[in-house]
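Could you help me review a protein record that somebody else here produced? My question to you is simply how this chain folds and whether the tokens agree. Thanks in advance; the entry in question is below:
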Amino acid sequence: MRHRIVIVGGGSAGISVAARLRRAGEEDIAVIEPDGFHYYQPLWTLVGGGYAALERTRRTEASVMPKGVRWVQDAAVELDPEAHVVATASGARIGYDVLVLCPGLELAWELVPGLAEAMATPQAASNYTAELAPKTFELVRRFRGGEAIFAAPGSPIKCPGAPQKAAYLACDRWQRSGTLASAKVTFSSGAGGIFGVPEFAAVLEGVVERYGIETRFGRELVEIDPDVRQATFESIGPEGKVRETLHYDLLHATPPQRAPGFVRESMLSSQTPFGWVPVDRHRLVHARYPDVFALGDACDAPTSKTGAAIRRQAPVVVANLLAFLAGRDPSARYDGYAACPFTTARGKMLLAEFDYSLSPHPTIPFIDTTRERYDMWLLKRYGLPAFYWNVMLRGFG
């Protein structure tokens, strides 16, 4: 089979782009997506915090697929940009005139020995999967004191603020129940600091101080021994690599993440260990193939991998794709806008909006979003999910 436009990935990016293309009059579009369900993943933080039900984050893929778009319910397994073909797990070979790559990313649990095994124990969970997010809340709810570790890698991950949010919501609940006084809470990250935008970092440092969280930056989680509940971290010191092992009674871990295998192994990959798709960071066109566009978690645009970034990337990809098909120079530009809604407590949220310059980039007029706010909590809990399902996935916004 062959289509004028083939989109690999039916998540936030793929459905948004497909809907916008249909509204622009494009009729020959295929979306390759194997999963039968579509998730609003940003709400998993609140599932893990006990403030949202998992079923509210899920709808069928068929219900969000734009009308007139062919849904190929199959998994892409090979990309051949020279032949302009995508091969699927069922053996189909789908040709294209233009390819849009937005397959999301892969949770690489195996890169940390013992991490996957730890997730099967009663002491560890992660908000990064639909299956484990409800378990996070159960662990937090049952916790009666001891050592709690929240760990995150320093390499790129989707929603890089999510590991912090898990820690803040847990500490807020423990503070309300009187458990926090009996807990030693550690946030350990391979990143160099709490956040890259100073105006928001200052607020988050205050949140950390309020809960008494010990922060340990530049420390990468490298091994878990679930039998004795020990987590080993590695840092780089003056004399080289240094390892340190900490005990835990509760562990929330964010796994390392990378592009899916079929992307990493293709000619469209950056050929780095993480395999992100290299793009012009403003036009979102592939660095070597002008008929390939990429957005969302799998591309290497140097901004946070968030749904807010996708919302700004999708119209740029559509405009530049249509320009390419019309023989014009793709001139639409993405400025690196991304947003991270930090839920810092029940009823409090810090909306961190920024761009490539790592400067605040507020989009809500007359509201100071450089502080924790109750109205931003309502936006996170109710406004953004409604906007996602009813506006963004329909090609608006």
In short: DSSP finds ten helices and 21 strands in the chain. The two ends are 32 Å apart (CA to CA).
